[in-house]
Amino acid sequence: MTTNVIEVVNFTLNTDADLAQFHIANNAFQNFIDQQPGVFYRSLAKQPDTPLYIDVIYFATPTDAKRISDAFSENAICQQFAALIAKQSVQLTHYEVLSQTACQQS
């Protein structure tokens, strides 16, 4: 049985990051993610009144999660997104899915 994987990344932006630039980089990263096989869903959210973001990606398999992670460190689009993030703030965790409902993208 193949286990789906959820990747959760908490982060803040660099103090000098431009929000408009971040939105452009996020849109480009989202387009990159949308084209990757093995990715079910991605959601980016920001906690109100704090600088904390959370990025959640659902993968079909652990192998898919690893492949995208490896591509992230090499891909120019991903690196433009990452350049705006405070590296010391990044907390990345993977979870094995135990139960889920059908995901429908809106």
Oligomer: single chain
Radius of gyration: 14 Å
Point out poorly predicted stretches. Answer: none
The major sheet is characterized as:
4 strands, antiparallel
Q: Return the CATH class.
A: Alpha Beta
Query: Which fold name fills CATH's third level, the topology?
Result: Alpha-Beta Plaits
Strand content: 25-35%
| Helix/strand order, N-terminal first | EHEEHHE
Number of domains: 1
Structural class: alpha+beta
Q: Specify the number of helices.
A: 3
Gross CATH architecture = 2-Layer Sandwich
Percent of residues in helices comes to 25-40%
- Overall pLDDT metric: 93
Topology:
Blueprint: E1 5-11, H1 19-34, E2 39-46, E3 53-59, H2 62-72, H3 76-82, E4 91-96
Antiparallel strand pairs: 1-3, 1-4, 2-3
Defining key terms:
ABM domain-containing protein, four-stranded antiparallel beta sheet, alpha+beta, 106 residues, 3 helices, 32% helix, Alpha-Beta Plaits
What would your notes on this structure say?
This protein has 3 helices and 4 strands, in the order E-H-E-E-H-H-E. It has 106 residues and is an alpha+beta fold. It has a single domain, classed as Alpha-Beta Plaits. Strands 2-3-1-4 form a 4-stranded antiparallel β-sheet. Helix 1 runs antiparallel to helix 3. The radius of gyration is 14 Å and the shape is globular. It starts with a strand and ends in a 10-residue tail after the last strand. This is ABM domain-containing protein.
